[in-house]
Gas vesicle protein
Amino acid sequence: MSNKTSSSIIALLAGVAIGVGLGILFAPDKGSKTREKIKEGLDDLKDQAKTQWSNLEDETKEKFSKTKDELKETVDDLLSNSSYKAEEAITFLEEKLAELKKQNAKLQK
């Protein structure tokens, strides 16, 4: 979770809690109405937290998906380069072997 996102979630939750508290203090009603207001405030808070959590989950999945794709691409590039380098090494060794065979043939005459 990024610092910015977690700070936003904390600020949102704190703002809702403060708003509910001030609403209760400045609009006193019967106990049943006050409890209903508190319940509604908590329900709103719960809905907002679920939304934030869902957004955070989506962002995280997207980031991991991008990272996975980038890693796969990097591995594919490395394998391709390794294959190319192996071909170069084989060609070099074949050339050296041919030279050694020529030198050996001259020495055996």
The chain has a mean pLDDT of 80. Residues 35-108 form one domain. Residues 31-108 form the longest helix (78 residues). The helical segments are 3-26, 31-108.
